[in-house]
Amino acid sequence: MAQVSSTMYGKDNVRVFKVHRNEETGVQTVVEMTVCVLLEGEIETSYTQADNSVVVATDTMKNTVYIMAKQHPVTPPEFFASIVSNHFIETYKHIHAAHVKVITHRWTRMTIDGQPHPHSFLRDGSETRTVEAAAREGRGISMRSGIAGLLVLKSTGSQFHSFVRDEYTTLPEVHDRILSTEVDANWLWRKFPGLEAVKSSVPKFDAAWDAARTITLKTFAREQSASVQNTMYKMCEQILAAVPEVDAVDYSLPNKHYFEIDLSWHKGLKNTGKDAEIYAPQSNPNGLIQCTVTRPGKASNL
């Protein structure tokens, strides 16, 4: 005999674009999101008995996202994700958990002749702001905010040496190198008892995102990095200090390697060590360094 151990289904890649028009000033504001909704509950018979009477159609989920976006604020995304997830557990009694992920894409207002333009924007990078909210019946709302796709590079101020060396090691020790990575950072909020608690915390969400982004960039730029591991730990530590409502911070930082090219074969041309100017950007394989830092007494997977 077989039995269903867990079930979840929903609608992914719901793309939403909202324009807010201030009739008094003529200034317009835009927000573009990609939303994913996944539901859990008493739905196992739809799998085992072809019973569609328990299925909230994924097209209904898509429509719900559009309607919620029309009727409610979409910023900060933490509040919007909580509104959508809470809607599903309150509307459908057999749905006991709703997971909503919101990815907010960058649209930055143009500056024309030194003045912010009222209705023109540019996409100035692939960085996104992310939120994952899960509303569970009788158990509140859990939430994780983040930054993804933030590509950074510094041409000096990084080193990597004194690591384990054995018969498998060919990597040379480096005391000055290019450091580049694509930042994926997340912070886990202390659980909210309900939607009203999320609403009362609205001002904290943008402030936390600004703090996390600023800490990431400042630490990356200023740190004389002994390793990616140590640098990312310092970032986590600072975010926990800056945002008391956050219980855990995690980073995932892939190395974007730039290797020196030995050009000595061409008339003795020097291009290594202190003479290096020309590098070859690498795609893969690459290092991948991850870390989760929690407050003392909080659960750890170490």
Topology:
Elements: E1 9-21, E2 28-41, H1 44-48, H2 58-71, H3 77-91, E3 95-105, E4 108-112, E5 115-122, E6 128-136, E7 140-154, E8 179-189, H4 195-200, H5 202-222, H6 228-242, E9 246-254, E10 258-260, E11 279-281, E12 288-294
Antiparallel strand pairs: 1-2, 2-3, 3-6, 4-5, 6-7, 7-8, 8-9, 9-12, 10-11
Helix pairs in contact: 5-6
Walk me through what this model shows.
The protein is an alpha+beta fold. The chain has helices at 44-48, 58-71, 77-91, 195-200, 202-222, 228-242; strands at residues 9-21, 28-41, 95-105, 108-112, 115-122, 128-136, 140-154, 179-189, 246-254, 258-260, 279-281, 288-294. Strands 1-2-3-6-7-8-9-12 form an 8-stranded antiparallel β-sheet. A hairpin with a 3-residue loop joins strand 6 and strand 7. The longest helix is centred in the last third of the chain and has 21 residues, at 202-222. The radius of gyration is 24 Å and the shape is globular. The mean pLDDT is 96.
